[in-house]
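> agent: user asked for a holo structure of the chain below bound to zinc ion. Plan: (1) validate sequence alphabet, (2) canonicalize SMILES, (3) run complex prediction with ligand conditioning, (4) return tokens. Step 1... ok. Step 2... ok. Step 3 dispatched.
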Amino acid sequence: MRNTKKQIEKHDLHVKTGDRVIVTAGKDRGKIGNIKKIIASENKVVVEGANMIKKAQKPNPMAGIQGGLIDIEAPMDSSKVMIYCQSCEKATRVKHEIVDGKKVRVCKKCGEHIDA
Ligand SMILES: [Zn+2]
């Protein structure tokens, strides 16, 4: 038995769904994609086009699914991705600024807003 005492913490990841990120480790190092999904409880993210794995798909004629092997993105550790700044064209860190009472994320390197 694990995790009986410790509650699952909701991690506050440094990225969120839809963010443009660059993969900084592993076989897809250097790949840039958008975050498709965040699994906060496991500290994992799914990045579009990165960390692809083959997965067996069960045929489902009702849904028009043929079955066989499909390529899907596997979740990866959130520490392996960094925010990608379109302005610097580099991996960057963000800082938070309050603009017009709203919290916005800003590139630490060039000051460009990350959130469009
Ligand atoms: Zn920048």
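> agent: step 4 complete. Summary for user: The chain has no helices and ten strands. The two ends are 45 Å apart (CA to CA).
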